Amino acid sequence: MGKVRKIEPTKPHDAASKKRHVAAYCRVSTDNSDQLESLETQKAHYESFILLHTDWEFAGLYYDTGITGTKAEIREGLQNLLTACRIGKIDHILVKSISRFSRNTTDCLSIIRELLNIGVTIYFEKENIDTGDMESELILAILSSMAEDESASISKNEKWSIQRRMATGVYKMAYVPYGYQRNSNGDMIIEPNEAEVIRYIFNSVLAGHGTDAIAKALDRLHIPTRKGGKWSGSTVRDIIMNEKYVGDALFQKTYTDDTFQRHANHGEVKTYLISEHHEPIISREVFEKANALIKQRGKEKGIVRVAGKYQSRYAFSGKITCGICGGKLIRRIHDGGNEIAWTCKTHIVNINHCSARYVRDDILKAAFVTMLNKLIFSRKIILKPLYDTLRAESTDESIKRMQELQKLLETNSEKKHTLRQLRAQEIIDNVMYNRELNMLKKADEAYRNELAILSCYTSAEAYEVSEMEKLLRFTESSSMITEFNEETFLTFVDHIIVYGRDYIEFKLKCGLTLKEVV
Hints:
There is one protein chain. The protein is 49% helix and 17% strand. It is α+β, with helices and mostly antiparallel strands. Among the domains are: 13-153, Rossmann fold (3-Layer(aba) Sandwich); 180-310, Putative Large Serine Recombinase, Chain B, Domain 2 (Hect, E3 ligase catalytic domain fold, Alpha-Beta Complex).
């Protein structure tokens, strides 16, 4: 028998020499000199720290300056870091603290989960947390919430300071409107050339011109907006409604909520109106007359201002398309107000581009009533078999699974509530509570991920099945209708296509297209 020689296992050369690619992320909240100096200190610290580790390879420094830390999507440095991680250039990230990384709990946890899924870990120096060693997200969630609370506290202090300056009349707005500029002291003064444009706009309104017509006139005169673009009716309308042109200043027209989202202020927070804040461009009399005319024209056109936007009150508005040219039909009044009709906008501008004649409003309404009555009459012959076919041919199992997942999420929510009660009554200890809670959270995440995947493939089908069921239930419970009902139209019709005065098509939300001769 030959001699047996034991050969010790060896690691492959490339595995032994493989190093972790380590990067650092730094951020300072403002761009003043002290904070920029702090950034340079952080950069030097992490670069030398990474180079001290022989098993680490320096993968770069990523940083942001002078911007908020509440929203990840607006931080270019952080986004560049995440991109490098996604393409495999980084294995490990060093960060001074959670608050430097993100003050938004949702953002923080979302980023960490994504990075862990692709094998990238983060070390938070101040909290001594390495996401690669974490068995639970509970500690991180608590610490991240603390960082978010800190950001909210800073935000509240800043808001209080701003509101105090607004209330005392010393607040300076971030920008000055068209027609004004700042002097050397930062105060608003009139810009002569732009002020002439403002006066032209108000005088045009008083002369009976509409906002769209005024915008076109300004473009024809080659007068650019402040940003060098073209004018629009909405821009002209905003100028007419801006109180600053009479010398007043209304502060806090918008506000930021507790989740750092900006909204138009419709009475949610206080506003501050400062009269005679600066030199006016137009008189109050002209301002009030112009605004009264704009409001009157809006009423005549059936347009109302809701939640800061102009919306139509007519059921057909924005829902009728020309079958000849593809343009939109707009509402017109004929015969001294005795006849309401819908006319192709292209035809109005140039009759040579579209030959479609107008269609009366009452004809469209009568066609809808006829179409709906046909469905009511033939629901058993048409709608019910079609609904059954849709359900059979759609990804019915997926829809059913989505319903099951929703129920599972609801059940888990109830279990979490029960867990909290058990802990409050000291029936279970914190260890068991955290373990069970984490299991429920992981299950919730898996359910939501599955729901997201299923919804990508079934949302359109599920929507049409749902709309078809809604239409079927309506026809089963309704007798023949005798007059047009706006709510019913908006419930079931997506849009109308008008083919001249020959026939029209109703495109229903359930996917059906029904033709009616007019």
